[in-house]
Amino acid sequence: NPPAVNPPPPKERLRHQPLILIVDDEPKNVKLLSAKLADQRFTIHTAYNGPDALEMTARHAPDLILLDIMMPGMDGYEVTRQLKANESTRAIPIIMITALDGPEDKEKGIAVGAQEFLTKPVNTAELQARISSMLRLKRFKEQLESRQESKARFGRGDSASTGRIGVPATHILLVEDDEKHVKLLAPTLERTPCRLSVAPSAEAALEIVAAGERIDLMLLDVLLPGMSGFDLCRRIKADPDSQDIQVVLITCLDDLESRIKGVE
To answer: How much is the pTM?
Structure first.
């Protein structure tokens, strides 16, 4: 395998250019992914095996990692496991890119800490959309942590963040108009330490959000009567009071256009 490209010193990286680390043992795949991002304002670093990926991450602290799973020696799962176990690197978002497409492969990746999956061959528009989404989420988390540190420093801690006796740590809002689907999902969710609420429409979900009740995660059906899940998600993310709600879109639509639209 060719050696990792020696990147410029960190001080030479433009502040507005996120650093993307591409990790794949096949040089052709690295070139292909680099080409797909060539027109974006990214600084690209590359590594061709797991140990080099860990070393490059420790040295340059990338903003996001595109990580192949099937590599000789240390595979992508082990790379992710080690990065997520390290306090200094656990916050870096990881998008696994793989030819594996079985549900057990994704479950294993999520278990070790990966945020996203893309299946080879990778579509350029979807790749760019998912990278943009992960970078926005990373910036939001950094801003939130900065505000929390400022509150703690000046003695203005938010008592709501510590939780209240009798209130579950996680509130999940399921937005689904089909009662059969609600009955299918509810038992699985009830096995987790959370409080579950159900809204039968986007309009009903907006009323719950507007009431000011804390919602940690929204499971959102795309095909809803009236306002669609896409439109509801757009309104939630445009409102400063609700934009930090994490949203998982659930849909029978499996076309690429719908996936890209959801990420955007």
So the answer is: 0.63
Round to whole Å and give the CA distance between 188 and 208: 22
Cα angle 234, 176, 215; round to 5? 60
Compute the distance between CA of residue 175 and CA of residue 191 in angstroms, rounded to an integer.
19
CA distance 221 to 252: 9
Tell me the angle at which helices 76-85 and 50-60 cross, rounded to the nearest 10 degrees: 30
Q: Are 170 and 216 in contact (CB under 8 A)?
A: yes
User: Which residues, including other chains, have CB under 8 Å from residue 151's CB and lie 6 or more apart?
Assistant: 157, 158
Q: What is the pLDDT of residues 7-22, one digit of tens each?
A: 444 444 445 689 999 9
List the Cα angle 148/167/137 in 5-degree steps: 40
Alpha-carbon distance values, 45 to 28, 87, 135, 248 (Å): 15, 22, 16, 30
